[in-house]
Automatic annotation (TrEMBL):
<feature type="binding site">
    <location>
        <position position="642"/>
    </location>
    <ligand>
        <name>Zn(2+)</name>
    </ligand>
</feature>
<feature type="binding site">
    <location>
        <position position="666"/>
    </location>
    <ligand>
        <name>Zn(2+)</name>
    </ligand>
</feature>
<feature type="domain" description="Cobalamin-independent methionine synthase MetE C-terminal/archaeal">
    <location>
        <begin position="427"/>
        <end position="749"/>
    </location>
</feature>
<keyword id="KW-0028">Amino-acid biosynthesis</keyword>
<keyword id="KW-0486">Methionine biosynthesis</keyword>
<feature type="binding site">
    <location>
        <position position="644"/>
    </location>
    <ligand>
        <name>Zn(2+)</name>
    </ligand>
</feature>
<keyword id="KW-0489">Methyltransferase</keyword>
<feature type="binding site">
    <location>
        <position position="600"/>
    </location>
    <ligand>
        <name>L-homocysteine</name>
    </ligand>
</feature>
<dbReference type="InterPro" id="IPR002629">
    <property type="entry name" value="Met_Synth_C/arc"/>
</dbReference>
<dbReference type="GO" id="GO:0008270">
    <property type="term" value="F:zinc ion binding"/>
</dbReference>
<feature type="binding site">
    <location>
        <position position="600"/>
    </location>
    <ligand>
        <name>L-methionine</name>
    </ligand>
</feature>
<feature type="binding site">
    <location>
        <position position="19"/>
    </location>
    <ligand>
        <name>5-methyltetrahydropteroyltri-L-glutamate</name>
    </ligand>
</feature>
<feature type="binding site">
    <location>
        <begin position="516"/>
        <end position="517"/>
    </location>
    <ligand>
        <name>5-methyltetrahydropteroyltri-L-glutamate</name>
    </ligand>
</feature>
<feature type="binding site">
    <location>
        <position position="727"/>
    </location>
    <ligand>
        <name>Zn(2+)</name>
    </ligand>
</feature>
<feature type="domain" description="Cobalamin-independent methionine synthase MetE N-terminal">
    <location>
        <begin position="5"/>
        <end position="307"/>
    </location>
</feature>
<dbReference type="GO" id="GO:0003871">
    <property type="term" value="F:5-methyltetrahydropteroyltriglutamate-homocysteine S-methyltransferase activity"/>
</dbReference>
<feature type="binding site">
    <location>
        <position position="112"/>
    </location>
    <ligand>
        <name>5-methyltetrahydropteroyltri-L-glutamate</name>
    </ligand>
</feature>
Length: 756
């Protein structure tokens, strides 16, 4: 009989219950006991959903209070020594301090999980790192599941991916050298799980989809020869790309089964059709929300069933962490757009799709004949829909003028014209865009959406908040101001709501990091901008001050990457459609007198294909889409962009090719290490490296900011250096925001006095 499992489940709950409980706990409004109780309830609910849909195993160990890689740092004793915490006796409060920082230590660095919008906490390894096993996180969840009469399959990230995802700190060394120290700790964790009677353990090695050095690839055989000695079976899980290049040795690896992502890389199956162990076929998309073609999947799986028999498992392509929880609660979408609703599948529906496939494979298609017919009808309706394709959008994209994505003049000409009217001091200060989203702002926005207040009342509330933000910035003596974005619920959703071709859910939240959730728009059709989106807010803010006001937009690549994107045309085409639509907004801002415009692109690096061979094509169309978003602007209009929580070393030529006049980047958690790449590359335009971490409520000391700015001044000419926080201030409170910015401005003024 074909078995069914999933690689992981969303953690935050159907209605973000965990998020709200965490944040109440951090505000001392919720006890630790209550938080633990809620977490147990959410875990059990996830397992019951899996069991009710014929899952042969329920996945445990995937639930986390913040991040699964942080959990693994605790489990292996690899938490940063600088905190002074004992990983064997770590309290929940200390766990959160690792993720969020405290008064003495900055938080563990975050970066993107492969090419997703999920952030993991980067392990900090030193040559003296001492590992020590603490398997309680996994063991306790196994016991909980067994107490419910369920069959648990614990999951943890494998040792090679864990080391690969970390960073060396302190004296120079190669973190690969830590493998021999780490391996016995993994073996101890697996032994503890085997002692609980666990039959299968899922070990994720997604790094196999990357271009790993040969030394790392050669290590897989001895590593898994040692780990396979435990008294449980090991399912090695790969995802996010093809591992066909490694098929020969993967087929001989000392594991009991292999999971392949057959959504991202269906072509790799050919290399494994003669695999002699359990093959887990990842056929349901764990990263997008479109309904699966069940008939096509059955046609794909039937030959595998014939070959593998009971050795065939079916699964999600990767963890369902990246999908919303339940489509059934989207009653508003169902009423307003029933066709689109019928084309979608969220986490619970994806598990149901797996159940249908399992039943068809084990009992024959006739057992699910009605479900298959309904599925096919919905897919056919989507293919023939008249609301998806718009001739005018395709025609505009096809008929862009030659060099539409090129500025009129080179940077040295443009910056001279910009400086002439900007008249800014050395080390100009600014922020990344958003200011605290208070409860009052959110209530006003929610009440307006519910129809409980008029448009005039809502607009007055937003204007009042914008004036507050402007006055605060003036008091702080910032140089280039922003309006604070009070009207924006999310940096992508806001624009999607105002662009054609997008649709929205009410509860379609996915975890970005910790308690931070995002609700990605759905791009279902051709994209265009029917009317201005930000102009009147920026105009109003400019009317309140004589200082320079910066317009704020989210860039085309980020809108694409942080949305659920249609899968019926190339992503490159969708991205260029968005870029062209945004260019209308940029030109309208320019006409309105807003001549400093920031187009945020934090997602360019995250969307980079995992294989280097695919990079050039991706960087070509993403760079073009970004440049299209400001096509036609005058030389004296200054274009900014912002990028955060990514490694840029390998793609700096492409970032320079964006030709933004100013780029701001996150650098504080890495102690300006990220800046080194820009310096070695000799990045040609202005740079604003972040000088403090906005994801922590901690107020940086003047010495810390001065240290970072002096490091920046050592490598960036003072005429090209901007000063700003790491990212937007939306998640912070007003008190800490003012204190943080005051320190930043005071230190900047001190250094200016030295440099004049």
């Amino acid at each position: 009989m074909t078995k069914l499992h999933v690689l992981g489940f969303p953690r935050v709950g159907a209605k973000r219950e965990l998020k709200f409980a965490q944040e109440r706990y951090w505000r001392n409004e919720f006890s630790e006991q209550d938080l633990l109780k809620l977490a147990k309830f959410l875990r059990e609910k996830n397992w019951q959903h899996q069991a009710e849909n014929q899952a042969d195993f329920v996945t445990v160990g995937d639930f986390t209070f913040y991040d699964h890689i942080l959990d693994l740092q605790v489990a292996t004793g690899a938490i940063p020594a600088r905190f002074g915490f004992d990983s064997q006796n770590l309290t929940l409060n200390q766990y959160f301090q690792l993720a969020r920082g405290n008064q003495q230590q900055f938080a563990i660095e975050m970066t993107k999980w492969f090419d997703t919008n999920y952030h993991y906490l980067v392990p900090e390894f030193t040559q003296d790192t001492k590992f020590k096993a603490n398997p309680s996180h996994y063991v306790n969840q196994v016991r909980e599941a067994k107490a419910l009469g369920l069959t648990p399959k614990p999951v943890l990230v494998g040792p090679l991916t864990f080391l690969w995802l970390g960073k060396e700190k302190g004296a120079a060394f190669d973190r690969f050298s830590l493998l021999d120290r780490l391996l016995p700790v993994y073996q101890e964790i697996l032994t503890a799980l085997a002692a609980e009677g666990v039959e299968w353990i899922q070990i994720d090695e997604p790094a196999l989809a990357l271009d790993l050095p040969q030394q790392w690839l050669d290590a897989f055989a001895p590593v898994y020869a040692q780990l396979s000695q435990v008294n449980s079976k090991i399912l090695l899980a790969t995802y996010f790309g093809s591992v066909a290049a490694h098929a020969d040795w993967l087929k001989t690896l000392s594991v009991d089964g292999l999971h392949l992502d057959l959504v991202r890389a269906p072509e790799q199956l050919a290399a494994f059709e003669d695999y002699q162990k359990v093959l887990s076929a990842g056929v349901i998309d764990g990263r997008n929300i479109w309904r699966a073609d069940l008939n096509a999947q059955l046609a794909y799986l039937a030959p595998l069933k014939a070959k593998f028999g009971e050795r065939l498992w079916i699964a999600s392509s990767c963890s369902l962490l990246h999908c919303p929880f339940d489509l059934a609660v989207e009653t508003q979408l169902k009423e307003q757009n029933p066709d689109l609703y019928s084309w979608l599948a969220f986490t619970l529906q994806k598990v149901e799709e797996l159940a249908v496939l399992k039943q068809a494979l084990n009992q024959g298609k006739e057992a699910v004949e009605n479900i298959l017919a309904e599925n096919q009808a919905a897919l056919q309706a989507r293919a023939n829909s008249q609301v998806i394709h718009k001739a005018e959008v395709a025609e505009r994209l096809a008929n862009l003028p030659a060099d539409a994505d090129k500025r009129k003049s080179p940077f040295n000409v443009r910056i001279a014209k910009q400086n002439a009217w900007l008249n800014l001091p050395l080390l100009p200060t600014t922020t990344i865009g958003s200011f605290p989203q208070t409860l009052q702002i959110r209530h006003a926005r929610a009440n307006f959406r519910k129809g409980e207040i008029s448009f005039a009342d809502y607009e007055n509330a937003m204007k009042k908040e914008i004036e507050l933000v402007v006055r605060k910035q003036e008091e702080l003596d910032l140089d280039v101001l922003v309006h604070g974005e009070p009207e924006r619920n999310d940096m992508v959703e806001y624009f999607g709501e105002l662009l054609d071709g997008f649709a929205f859910t009410k509860f379609g939240w996915v975890q970005s990091y910790g308690s931070r959730c995002v609700k990605p728009p759905i791009i279902f059709g051709d994209v265009s901008r029917p009317q201005p989106m930000t102009v009147r807010w920026s105009q109003y803010a400019q009317s309140l001050t004589k200082r320079v006001m910066k317009g704020m937009l989210t860039g085309p690549v980020t809108i694409l990457q942080w949305s659920f994107v249609r899968n019926d045309i190339p992503r490159a085409t969708v991205c260029k459609q968005i870029g062209v639509a945004l260019s209308d907004e940029v030109l309208d801002l320019e006409k309105a007198g807003i001549k400093v415009i920031q187009i945020d692109e934090p997602a360019i690096r995250e969307g980079l294909p995992l294989k280097r061979a695919d990079w050039d094509e991706y960087l070509q169309w993403t760079s073009e889409a970004f440049r299209l978003s400001y096509m036609g602007v005058a030389d004296d209009t200054q274009i900014h962009t912002h990028m955060c929580y990514s490694e840029f070393n390998d793609i700096l030529p492409a970032i320079a090719g964006l030709d933004a006049d100013v780029i701001t980047i996150e650098t504080s958690r890495s102690d300006m290490d990220l800046l080194d790449a820009f310096v070695k590359f000799n990045y040609p335009n202005d740079i604003g490296p972040g000088v403090y971490d906005i994801h922590s409520p901690r107020v940086p000391t003047a010495a810390e900011i001065e240290h970072l700015l002096r490091k920046a001044l050592n490598v960036i000419p003072k005429e090209r250096l901007w000063v700003n926080p790491d990212c937007g201030l939306k998640t912070r409170g007003w008190s800490e925001t003012v204190e943080q910015l005051k320190v930043m401005v005071d230190v900047t003024k001190k250094l200016r006095a030295e440099l004049v």
